[in-house]
């Protein structure tokens, strides 16, 4: 620890004190932060969702690409997105922070503030965690607990031949945003106004909890996955878990105007970011084609975006792409690696 | 990743496949490993317990002091101990592993095997996690979910004047064990048979879940804390959370025969390890003195150790020690720092 940092206990209570507990959640917290463990109450008719995810400096983010508050935001957002992909409601989170001495107390507080701001928007409460000084890169592990109605979880293995494939938003924005943030002349501090929206999609992604809830409460069998590693990799996960073939239409893949403009300007292919860029945190799913209209209508009523991008066929697990040229090819299963090119 | 390591997905499924799911728990797991998140069922009349803890190479362990399987064991054990300190039943765990390229696949598998072996003994199941390559020390974050009967959590703030203070086992063994493992001529591979039991108390601690359950189901108001940072630090936490003074009797602090022998041999003070050594994972607690006999009897019937070590008085938060010499002094609040002396 550097001299301008408190001891572990002081630091933890300083950091955890920065988070307000939403009123609605307070009565479900029997024991919050500050004891050996937290105790929280369940709800009749609901099951618990649990997930955890780690972000590491220079693997998942660099100082050049993310502000400290962005790091906190994204670490929590990626877990909320996993809960959204199960159709659930995020409730509680625990934070384990491995801190190198090169980060000062103000920056650490900003990491926690990034989480707290997002958490409050989703009515979530911080209930525990751990802070430890590490002789290495900053490492942030977030665990999220949520809940979903019994038997309503939306699993990757739910896709069937005859399903239609949907997406809850445009993809590729975060990948393009990372490319922008990695430009030496820009970085997080100097992104031109024109590309700010793309950079923000990388820095401050919003998980699709509302879309997940709409799908979970529909009572329809739906396969669902969140896009953390690119559309190709996540579609492959559904194909393999469901033992089906997904056929996507190139013409139907939703690309935002800024992504197309930035791809043009920088000589990149926007679809590469859509398929193999990561951290868009949109949901990709499959549902029987007979429900296309009713689901489209439900999304429209809530003013949530929805795009139909392909269909599910019987066959060995595969993701195929039907190009506008008329050709069809297998979409490579490769995923997303932040700073080292393809995985 | 080194070449003898699989890619992330291959590695995760290889590692998580090493853990058997206890039959009794299987039907409570709606979704286990392999989807975006796990879904598990609660039980009527119970609340959930959640905690997480991080272990970092060269901060919490060294290659010299711990085998890979020990690291897995202890990371899980420290969380189980937090559940025990709430009087709860540990059920599920999630693992986030930050892996430097200097660890090979066999060693990583041993870390998971260390967790799996301990988990099976406590009827726990692995339900999720994350593996990421890191340019730094090995970092292992374990989250444990457990349950406890509604309103039966044993909190640090439950102590009252007139309570008796108890310990569920000897303390100082782990601290002495670490001292042994740090001797250059020994290390984890060559500890003399005579000191093996102490080294094992450091490498493979057993959390006191049975004791915690016995106390939680007694229906009596009890303050409880697990000893991860030394008796002094944990007793101080109870004193501060309960706003009382704890007065401990030096003569009553239980020290094992090996600790006393090794302290003699090495010129150390056994009580220093008891007060300021860490990771004994015994429970320290306070309960109204009128229950001393009935609790002693209940522990004896289950063949669980129990020691009465002092009393709780009204007064500003403090931990005092009544020495055999007749003198009383404040016990310093300092805790445990693995390799850098006192905190």
Automatic annotation (TrEMBL), chains A, B:
Residues reported in the UniProt entry to bind ATP: 112, 129-130, 156, 228
CDD domains: ThiL
Domain PurM-like N-terminal positions: 34-148
Enzymatic reactions: thiamine phosphate + ATP = thiamine diphosphate + ADP
List of residues binding Mg(2+) 1: 53, 130
Binding of substrate, residues: 60, 279, 336
Superkingdom of origin organism: Bacteria
One record GO biological process: thiamine diphosphate biosynthetic process
Gene3D superfamilies xrefs: PurM-like C-terminal domain (3.90.650.10), PurM-like, N-terminal domain (3.30.1330.10)
Family: Belongs to the thiamine-monophosphate kinase family.
Miscellaneous information on this protein: Reaction mechanism of ThiL seems to utilize a direct, inline transfer of the gamma-phosphate of ATP to TMP rather than a phosphorylated enzyme intermediate.
Name the UniProt record assigns to this protein: Thiamine-monophosphate kinase
Lineage: Bacteria, Bacillati, Bacillota, Bacilli, Bacillales
């Amino acid at each position: 620890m550097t001299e301008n940092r408190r001891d572990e206990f002081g630091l933890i209570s300083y950091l955890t004190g920065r988070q307000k507990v939403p009123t609605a959640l307070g009565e479900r917290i029997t024991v919050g932060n500050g004891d050996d463990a937290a105790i929280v109450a369940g709800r009749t008719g609901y099951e618990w969702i649990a997930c955890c995810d780690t972000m590491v400096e220079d693997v998942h983010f660099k100082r050049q690409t993310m502000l400290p508050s962005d790091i906190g935001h994204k670490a929590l957002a990626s877990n909320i997105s996993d809960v959204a992909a199960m159709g659930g409601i995020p409730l509680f989170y625990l934070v384990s922070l491995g801190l190198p001495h090169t980060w000062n107390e103000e920056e650490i507080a900003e990491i926690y503030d990034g989480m707290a701001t997002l958490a409050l928007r989703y009515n979530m409460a911080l209930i525990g965690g751990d802070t430890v000084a590490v002789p290495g890169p900053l490492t942030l592990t977030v665990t999220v607990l949520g809940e979903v109605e019994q038997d309503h979880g939306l699993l990757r293995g739910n896709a069937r031949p005859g399903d239609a494939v949907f997406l809850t938003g445009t993809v590729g924005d975060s990948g393009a945003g990372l490319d922008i943030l990695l430009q030496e002349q820009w970085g997080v501090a100097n992104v031109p106004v024109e590309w700010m929206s793309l950079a923000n999609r990388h820095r401050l992604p919003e998980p699709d909890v509302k879309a997940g809830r709409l799908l979970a409460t529909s009572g329809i069998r739906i396969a669902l996955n969140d896009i953390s590693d690119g559309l190709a990799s996540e579609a492959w996960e559904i194909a393999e878990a469901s033992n089906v073939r997904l056929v996507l239409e190139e013409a139907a893949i939703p690309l935002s105007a800024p992504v197309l403009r930035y791809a043009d300007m920088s000589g990149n292919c926007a679809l590469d970011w859509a398929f193999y860029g990561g951290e868009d945190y949109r949901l990709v799913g499959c549902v029987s084609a007979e429900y296309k209209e009713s689901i489209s209508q439900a999304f429209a009523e809530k003013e949530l975006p929805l795009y139909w991008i392909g269909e599910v066929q019987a066959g060995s697990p595969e993701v195929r792409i039907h190009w506008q040229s008329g050709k069809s090819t297998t979409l490579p299963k490769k995923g997303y690696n932040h700073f080292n090119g393809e995985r």
